[in-house]
Amino acid sequence: MKKNIAILGSTGSIGTQALEVIEANPEIFSVAVLTAQDNADLLIEQAAKFLPKEVVIGNEKHFDKVKSALSSFNIKVYSGIEALVSVVESEEIDTVLTAMVGYAGLLPTIHAIKAGKDIALANKETLVVAGELITALAKQYGVKIYPVDSEHSAIFQCLVGEEENKIEKIILTASGGPFRGKDRAFLANVTKAQALKHPNWSMGAKITIDSATLMNKGLEVIEAKWLFDLEASQIDVIVHPQSIVHSLVQFEDGSIKAQMGLPDMKLPIQYALRYPARLKSTFPRFSFMDYPSLTFEKPDMDTFRNLSIAYEVLEKGGNAACIVNAANEIAVEAFLQDKIGFLDISDLIIESLAKMSYISAPTYDDYVQTNEATRRFASELIQVKV
Ligand code: NAD
Ligand code: MG
Question: Which part of the chain is the DXP reductoisomerase C-terminal domain (predicted)?
Answer without folding.
Answer: 260-376
